[in-house]
Write a structure and sequence with these properties.
The complex is a heterodimer. Chain A is 30% helix and 17% strand. By secondary structure, chain A is an alpha/beta fold. Chain A has two domains: 9-95, Alpha-Beta Plaits; 161-500, TIM Barrel, CATH 3.20.20.70. In chain A, the strands form eight sheets. In chain A, strands 11-21-20-18-17-14-13-12 form an eight-stranded parallel β-sheet. In chain A, strands 6-22-23 form a three-stranded mixed β-sheet, with helices on one face. In chain A, strand 17, helix 8 and strand 18 (333-337) form a beta-alpha-beta unit. In chain A, 50% of the residues are buried. Chain B has a twelve-stranded mixed β-sheet, with helices on one face. Chain B is elongated. Chain B starts with a helix and ends with a strand. The relative contact order of chain B is 0.08. Classes of the chains: A alpha/beta, B alpha/beta. Chains A and B meet through helix 3, strand 5, helix 6 and helix 7 of A and helix 2 and strand 13 of B. Strand 5 (96-99) of chain A pairs parallel with strand 13 of chain B, so a sheet runs across the interface.
């Protein structure tokens, strides 16, 4: 069938600068560039280009640039080029449109409409460069009360505390499975988590045996497919997370296509090479809160109650009631993933239409758990498109204990958010299982970049807290008086639990 | 040899009325014990080298067999609760009674023999070891069962199964004997093998309805070797007649493809 699809991008090469070094030819995994030895010229197939900027970045003479193909369709607010191209693509293949990363539309983001407070005159701000600023965060169930015994001047804590995760900064790396991302990326995240005193999440594809040494900083995930789940995996991690849903694709399962299941990935997932790895959305042992409790306690029994158990859900319409059930089911941590959450592969129609913004989910879940007097029984971890320390501070002020970041971590490693993760050919060596392309991420350099990002954001969080006159993150959590809203309706302000700016 | 005095001395005093030793066998009266206490007791016995435990008056206690480090033999009298042998890694459990839901959930190694029936989602995500159920099993048995290299799970059912048998199955062997079916009566399970993409289901007799991802074919000689081995083991546990079981025709259900959903996306 003749394709009616126009090219998305146009490669422009400055012939006066190109030295025919062929770096672009070797770097492009989509085979956009080809060297013609006869004419001594490099030609580019625009239709293959995904605008990942790998060749542009690597070109030693800056001879390349990528332009968006602005034509050929006439401007139309309803029938945009993207809509027209999507329809043509489906007419030619009869398939579901697949995409990668988080929603790319100007979705209702509330971070820009929430503003932070600072001290002026009536209470002093704190200079974090000179004064201690506590951002260490403990995740896990907290007791209802503390029983303390005084004996001969000694203080003894009688209450038995539930197991906790200890974060030196309230930022963790979200679940990304080995298979969706390369081993080198997993290792970069693991090393960075070790050094920064935070945690990475294995995702649902198991943990490669070579990374067990980072287990003390791993949250090991259990999803419907149970890939690579066995007692040593459960006991290797610092916590266990049951994956119910994901913000990019609520109600939809995961599906690692057979061609990505290489020998290493097959060994970790414990499935034969080349077979599809199917993680359907329903976990058929969980049809109710009682069933969820059964799995939570199965995992607690399997690890002798030594690790916190987290339950991750996508933020959907009744998120507050669901969260209340999850806490009552015995979860120590509840992870909420908002509509802008990212993914390695999801049907575009699901990613762009299902779920609710994380800001509203944090506020409504925190409020519900407080109203029911069970907020101390579980920590809240928020996920779904955190782009800066500002977003993170606002999330904590709304009621989150900590956040998960994934897209920002991948950007630190080289990702340019080209949204083609599902092809498995990531030219930056991130979303791929190809051993040759994977080498483009060096775990040591990757870890350094990630640690730098966490360091920068942590310092900014301390700066913001200092400005508010707060010296411990505990005092910021759920402290919505430090937030004000702009451009919002009364209902939005009510759900977020914040006052209008100027009030 | 186990030193029972040492073990008894190590036990929490609340367990003492529940525990007696008969030679090398530890007998536990599970009546009134919460699952958390019962499993904690089993962990202690396991760590002190007790090789055989009898659990009497078991009534709904969950997760029995989870988090034990050795190949301890556990005999259960009564009805164990959900998630029997969940994530189990070695023990050999015999149940004299019925089992409930989620038997052998994500089990890695070991054996479960049930002298009775089992409930729904038996052997969810199981990847190693063997499970033998004398009578019927519930819905979605063998769901997500998978194998990798020398790790291969087996589930043998004496009676028949309910709907969605072997759903999403990605490896291992299911054998359903249908000993309680009369004459040519087929197994009533519908959607057998839905989403299945590896492994094999053997059935004695016919199946009423299958998922679209699988086909039914005749068994070959190598299949019969597997079937005979499993049936012989089954007969050993439940004192059934080997020849009589083998006298009826076996069929084999296998997936069309290892990639059932390879062509659903518009790249």
């Amino acid at each position: 069938m003749k394709s009616y699809l126009p090219v998305d991008f146009i490669v422009e090469r400055d012939e006066s600068k190109c030295i025919r070094c062929k770096v672009c030819v070797n770097q492009c995994t989509y085979e956009t560039h080809n060297y013609d030895a006869q004419d001594d010229v490099i030609r580019s197939k625009d239709e293959n280009c995904v605008n990942c900027q790998r060749c542009v970045t690597m070109c030693p003479t800056h001879a390349l640039s990528i332009k968006k193909n602005l034509g050929p369709f006439r401007d139309n607010a309803n029938w945009s080029s993207e809509v027209i191209k999507d329809i043509k693509k489906q007419a030619e293949t009869g398939g579901v449109l697949l995409t990668g990363m988080g929603a790319d539309k100007p979705y209702l983001t509330y971070w820009e409409r929430l503003l932070l407070n600072a001290s002026q005159v009536t209470n002093p701000s704190i200079d974090p460069l000179r004064e201690p600023m506590e951002i260490r965060t403990y995740l896990g169930a907290k007791p209802d009360a503390l029983e303390i015994e005084f004996e001969d001047g000694d203080i003894d804590l009688k209450t038995k505390l539930a197991p906790q995760l200890i974060l030196e900064t309230p930022i963790m790396f979200s679940a990304m499975s080995y298979g969706a991302i390369s081993l080198n990326v997993h290792e970069s995240l693991a090393r960075a988590a070790m050094r920064a005193g935070t945690y990475f999440n294995t995702g649902e594809g198991g943990l490669d045996s070579r990374l067990y040494k980072y287990g003390e900083r791993a949250i090991v995930q259990v999803a419907s497919g149970r890939f690579g789940v066995h007692s040593s995996y459960l006991n290797a991690g610092a916590a266990i997370e049951i994956k119910i849903g994901q913000g990019a694709k609520p109600g939809i399962g995961g599906h690692l296509p057979g061609e990505k299941v290489t020998e290493d990935i097959a060994r970790t997932r414990m499935i034969p090479v080349g077979t599809d790895a199917l993680s359907p959305a329903p976990q058929h042992d969980i049809y109710s809160i009682e069933d969820l409790r059964q799995l939570i306690y199965a995992l607690k029994e399997a690890t002798n109650y030594s690790k916190p158990v987290s339950v991750k859900i996508a933020a959907v319409h009744n998120v507050a009631a669901i969260a209340s059930g999850i806490v009552r089911a015995g979860a120590d941590i509840i992870a909420l993933d908002g509509v802008r959450g990212s993914t390695g592969a999801a049907p575009k129609v699901i990613r762009d239409n299902v779920g609710i913004p994380i800001e509203l989910a944090i506020a409504s879940v925190d409020q519900r758990l407080r109203d029911e007097g069970i907020r101390n029984k579980a920590s809240i971890v928020a996920a779904g498109g955190f782009r800066s320390s500002g977003d993170i501070v606002k999330a904590i002020a709304l009621g989150a204990d900590a956040v998960y970041v994934a897209t920002a971590a991948l950007i630190a490693l080289g990702c340019t958010v080209c949204q083609k993760c599902y092809t498995g050919k990531c030219p930056w060596g991130i979303a791929t299982s190809d051993p040759w392309i994977s080498k483009r991420v060096n775990p040591e350099i990757g870890a350094e970049r990630l640690v730098n990002l966490l360091r920068g954001w942590s310092m900014e969080i301390k700066e913001i807290m200092g400005g508010m006159g707060i010296n411990a993150i505990e005092s910021l959590r759920g402290n919505r008086l430090h937030l004000r809203g702009v451009n919002m309706t009364d209902t939005e302000l009510k759900i977020l639990g914040v006052k209008m700016a100027g009030e | 040899m186990i030193a029972k005095e040492i073990i008894l001395a190590k036990l929490d005093s609340r367990f003492l009325p529940h525990v007696t030793f008969n030679d090398q066998i530890c007998q536990v009266n599970a009546e009134g014990l919460h699952y958390r206490d019962l499993n904690s007791l089993l962990r202690t016995l396991d760590s002190h080298g007790v090789e055989k435990v009898e659990l009497h008056s078991v009534c709904g206690q969950r997760y029995i067999g989870t988090d034990l480090k050795t190949g301890m033999a556990i005999e259960i009298y009564g009805t164990p609760g959900n998630d029997l042998a969940a994530f189990m890694n070695g023990p050999y459990i015999t149940v004299y009674g019925n089992a409930q839901d989620c038997v052998a959930n994500t089990m890695n190694e070991g054996k479960v023999v049930v002298h009775g029936r089992a409930g729904d989602i038996t052997c969810y995500g199981m990847r190693g070891g063997k499970v033998f159920i004398r009578d019927d099993i519930g819905a979605r048995a063998g769901i997500h069962m998978k194998e990798y290299m020398d790790k291969k799970p087996y589930l043998v059912v004496g009676g028949t199964a309910m709907d969605f048998l072997g759903e999403y199955m990605a490896g291992g062997v299911l054998l359903v004997l249908g000993l309680n079916l009369k004459g040519d009566e087929p197994h009533k399970a519908r959607f057998v093998g839905t989403g299945m993409h590896a492994g094999v289901i053997y059935v004695r007799g016919n199946v009423a309805h299958m998922g679209k991802e699988v086909k039914m074919v005749d068994v070959e000689k190598s299949d019969m070797l597997t079937i005979e081995g499993l049936v012989r083991e089954f007969c050993g546990y439940f004192k059934t007649d080997f020849e009589e079981i083998l006298s009826k025709k076996f069929m084999k259900i296998v997936p069309y493809s290892h990639r059932p959903y390879g062509r659903i996306y518009a790249y």
